[in-house]
Amino acid sequence: MKLVGKNRILVVDDEVHVLITYRLILEQQGYDVTACTTAGEAIEIVERRSFDLVLCDYSLDEQHTGFEVILAARRRDPSVPAALLTGYATKETAEEAGRMNIAVMFKPIEIEEFLLNTSKMLRSGDEPRQETA
Amino acid sequence: MATAEIRVPTGRSNGKRAGAESHSGVLRLLDAERSEEIFPLLLEEIVALGYPRGLVAEVNFDTGDIAPTAALRWPKQTLAGFNTALWMSEHFLVSVLSTNQPVVLNKTDVHNRPIYIHPILFSSSQPCWEADRLRTGGCLAARNYRKQRRIRLEEQVCATCGMRAYAAAVVVEIPRRLTAQASAELRELIETANRLLSRLYKTEYYYNRMRDMEITIAQMGTVMQSMADPVILTDTQHRVMMQNKAAEHFFKAPDEMTEGLVRAVELNNLLFSATLSSMLVSDGDSHCDLTLVDVIEGEEMLFEAVSAPTFGPDGTQIGTVTVMHDVTELRATDQKLRANFEKLRDAEEMVRQDRDRLNLIIENVGDPIIVCDGDAKIVLVDPLAEELFGVSAGDRRSEVQSRNQTQLAAYVSSFTYSFAERETTPLKLFNPALRQEIEYDARAGKIFDERGQVSYSVTVLRDLTALRRVEQLKIERRMLEIEKFAATGRLAATIAHEVNNPMEAIKNAIYLLAGYIPEGAMPVYNILKSETERVARIVRQMLGLYRNTEQVKPVKVNTIIEDTLLLLNRQLQRANIEVKTDLGTLPDAVIAADQIRQVLSNLVINGKDAMPNGGKLMIRSRHVVGRDEVRGWVRILIADTGTGIPPEMLRTIFEPFVTTKGEKGTGLGLWIVKGIIQNHAGKISVKSKAGKGTVFKIDLPVVKL
User: Fold this and answer.
1) Residue A131: inside a domain, yes or no?
2) How many CB atoms lie within 10 A of CB B394?
């Protein structure tokens, strides 16, 4: 599944500045980062291309959620690791994420922790269960 | 006395004096000592007068039979013909007796020779001395002497002395040659014999009466002596005429004469005499108490004397009989009874006073009180209870009161027959004065008797209106606080959420700039970095409360405490803080372990921060089970010896952005702690004294999944 070369990561966040900083930080680490701000755009992309990791804000534009994007990515590649980035998650959301093997990272995220989790998820692409700090 | 026996003629009847004058015959009759000697002598004298034979037939007044009792020279075979009875009126003997006149019969069925029959009857020309002295004039003998009409059997008893008369017929055979002189002499002889017989008869009667009386007197004496009570007969001058042994004990000087005994007897006599006099004066009252001295024992004895006058045959009082009854014991018992009665009355008075006091208390308690007996029947109510139930109002009880009473009766009987000794139950009653339903707390207790049976139950009704109002206010205030807390929380969360994304961008940007900062700008960059981290921390904490992502499960609280301390161990050691734990045996608590860990770590770090110069930190855990609770609570106490919380801050310490740490604190730690504890349906409270330290108390409910 993994191609030779850079790991491909999709980052989705409706906040442009946040999205840019994530992309820059991940690119600093040598990942191939694709960033987009809307759910529609992201779904379009995951339907066309495969990723090694999907990092997605929970609440997106026009009441869309990160689940939709991740589900779309999993339709193409059911085992792709994914994480929700959010400031707040209801119990139901957290439980649903757990059921779907989606990690949850709460903002504000310590950058070291963010990078550690990211590399962990990429390494264990087949073993989707991830623990957040 | 005459008997029915037929006398065999004695040797004196051999006719020696045949032909002697009547005088000598009369003289011989005078020799008779007894009445039964008269008839044989008479017959002998009759024969001596020249009459061939004779007999005497006597009337038995007991049976009415007439039979020969003496006969001389009379052929035995014809004697039977003279047996008859008074009611056989056709018999010649009966007709002679009833007419009381002598007759001559020339021919009879029973004798072949003419006979002369002379009736004799108890009679005397003069009344007897007894009748004479009593002036009754009713002497039977005198009456018989005067009377010429037919005698009747039932009349033949003397009205004066009660003596019964005798009657007989002298039958003499008339010889062929009878001189008139002999005839007169015969008549004279018989009459004389009758007069003698009357006298003897009377004398014998007196003798018999005397003997009867002696017997009676002896019997009476025995009775009197055998009486245990003293009996005394006194004359009209109060002189003792007769007394029984019991009386002698008191009134007669004993053989051994000592001065003391004599004085005692004299005193008794004096007392008795005085008593008799006083009874005589107080005319009619024949009862009197009398104290005498027991001559031997020397003790005083109390008697009740009863006196009765005694009368002679003529009806005049001849004396007084006094019977004395020993009532010493009786009076002593009586006095005891009286004393007991007095005691009882005193006790009753005390009880009454107690009751009055109790009633006063009951009336002033200010709550309705109902006292019921062991059968759940109302025995006492205070005026307030009366207002509610109208107990003493009888039939005028209103509908509302009846309804209240029904409820009360149901409650009281269920309590009385329950096993509970005391009980508190809510009771809704309609208050007629306030015209509304009032909630009461019925507090009831039982009073038991010695056998352990319920003798009374006491119910006090406590009006809960005021209490409920306060409780309502408390709830409202608490609701308000919770609402305020929640609102603040929501606001804080909203702000945090809005700040979160820009801050995330700033934070990431600072991170990206790390390699590009010139040496001189590094301090500024560092300020930017650390302050941003602080904001991130604040936001993280604010949002943390809403990240209810963790599943609750049964957890050992002691383990969480130990884990937390282990994690913070180095920090605490550095701060020179001595940690003591006192962990009790706890049931598992159903909690979110991470959240409780956060609570504990917040509180421990708070404690540490409050002790900048070191100190002691104490953590204690206990399982506490309060009344009316099944599983109770897990209680955690975290105490420090730090600076303490200023009193003015204590009230607001759990609100957000309140901190004692100045710039160092976020002011959110305790707010989050409280939020977590409340999410667990727990309680948290704080006690603090400036300069001494602070204690946080957390109670987490023990629940079962």
Assistant:
1) no
2) 7
d(CA B104, CA B109): 14
Within 10 Å of residue A15's Cβ, how many Cβ atoms? 16
Tell me which residue range forms the domain holding B579: 548-701
The closest CB to that of B507, out of A24, A88, A108, belongs to A108
CATH assignment of the domain containing A116: 3.40.50.2300
Q: Which residues contact B351 (CB under 8 A, 6 or more apart)?
A: none
DSSP 8-class letter at A62: G
Residues of A in contact with B503 (CB under 8 A): 108
Neighbours of B513 (CB within 10 A): 13
Out of A18, A28, A106, name the one closest to residue B505 (CB): A18
Per-residue DSSP letters for B639-688? EE-SS---HHHHTTTTSTT--SSGGG--S-HHHHHHHHHHHTT-EEEEEE
* pLDDT digit string, tens, across residues B268-326: 888 888 888 887 776 655 788 888 888 777 788 888 888 888 888 778 888 888 888 88
Lowest mean pLDDT among B4-18, B151-165, B269-283: B4-18
Are A24 and B536 in contact (CB < 8 Å)? no
Tokens of B127: 């009344």
- Residue B655, phi-psi category: left (phi > 0), alpha (psi -120 to 50), beta (remainder): beta
What is the Cα–Cα distance from B25 to B2, expressed in whole angstroms?
A: 21
Most confident of A65-69, A84-88, B19-23, B678-682: A65-69
Strand B287-293 relative to strand B683-689, pairing: unpaired
Q: Which helix (H) or strand (E) holds B173?
A: strand B167-173
Lowest mean pLDDT among A94-108, B140-154, B357-371: B140-154
Task: Please give the average per-residue pLDDT across A15-22, as a whole number.
Answer: 90
For A110, the domain range is: 8-123
- Identify which has the larger pLDDT, B46 or A4: B46
Please give the average per-residue pLDDT across B604-633, as a whole number.
85
* Inside any domain, residue A56: yes
What's the average model confidence in pLDDT over B565-581? 87
Query: Taking Cα atoms as reference points, which of B367, B366, B369, B364 lies closest to residue B379?
Result: B369
Mutate to test the interface with B, among A11, A12, A17 (most CBs of B within 10 A): A17
| Alpha-carbon span B142 to B157, nearest angstrom | 12
Give mean pLDDT, residues A70-80: 88
Q: Residue B385: exposed, middle, or buried by beta-carbon count in 10 A (0-12, 13-18, 19+)?
A: buried
Q: Is the ipTM of this complex over 0.90?
A: no
B24 and B166 share one domain: yes
In a domain, A130, yes or no: no
Could you tell me which residues come within 8 angstroms of residue B434 by beta carbon, excluding any fewer than 6 positions away? none
Question: Edge-to-edge strand order for the sheet containing B287-293?
Answer: B240-243, B231-235, B317-326, B300-311, B287-293
Total of domains in chain A:
1
Cα within 13 Å of Cα(B464), Cβ side:
17
Last residue of a domain, one of B503, B527, B546: B546
Q: Decide if B605 contacts B570 (C-beta within 8 A).
A: no
- Residues of B with Cβ-Cβ distance to A28 under 8 angstroms: 512
Domain membership flag for residue A23:
yes
